[in-house]
Design brief:
The chain is mainly β. Helix content is 8%, strand content 47%. The longest helix is centred in the C-terminal third of the chain and has 9 residues, at 155-163.
């Protein structure tokens, strides 16, 4: 299975990018960074809903709000002691057309967040990689597409985070 259909969003796997970076490429993103969710909320049309549950030791790092090329909110958490991180991405659902969402990973499977269909993507599953593995969960709730990305965070913990939004 290469894709999972969540109704209004199709989730698929993207190839792991190479380490090559384009130096000096102009950024097309217009964004702002904040130190709290409440501060960021007044700068985006997205209804920012941070998780009520976070794994032990995980704390808010910052909130980035992108306004162009499209609205997007990125809430970043980390546990500096354990070296784990959690990123929750929120974007408005396009009600006019079915969206395609690509996530970097080696494997994709169906999952649920509460009673909502979801896609679970793993990077580094069963393979030797430098550093902890990455798990991504994508689901749609109301008019928002959510993506929770955990690095070094157990799948069960990531599901608890998602269900608490």
């Amino acid at each position: 299975m290469d894709t999972i259909d969540l109704g209004t969003v199709i989730v698929g796997l993207a190839a792991v990018p190479s380490q090559h970076k384009a130096h000096g490429a102009p950024s097309r993103f217009v964004s702002s960074t904040f130190t709290s969710v409440s501060e960021a909320a007044s700068h985006t049309p997205i209804d920012l809903k941070p998780p009520a549950y976070l794994p032990d030791g995980v704390r808010l790092l910052d909130v980035s709000v992108l306004r162009e090329p499209r609205d997007l909110a990125v809430v970043t958490y980390e546990d500096q002691v354990r070296g784990t991180s959690l990123v929750v991405v929120m974007s408005p659902l396009d009600m006019q057309a079915k969206q395609t969402h690509l996530s970097v990973g080696d494997a994709i499977e169906e999952a649920t967040v509460g009673s909502l269909p979801a896609a679970l993507i793993e990077l580094g599953a069963g393979k030797q990689r430098n550093g902890p593995g990455q798990t991504t969960l994508v689901w749609v709730k109301g008019d928002t597409v959510y993506q929770a990305i955990g690095v070094g965070i157990a799948r069960s913990e990531l599901l608890k985070v998602a269900e608490s939004i």
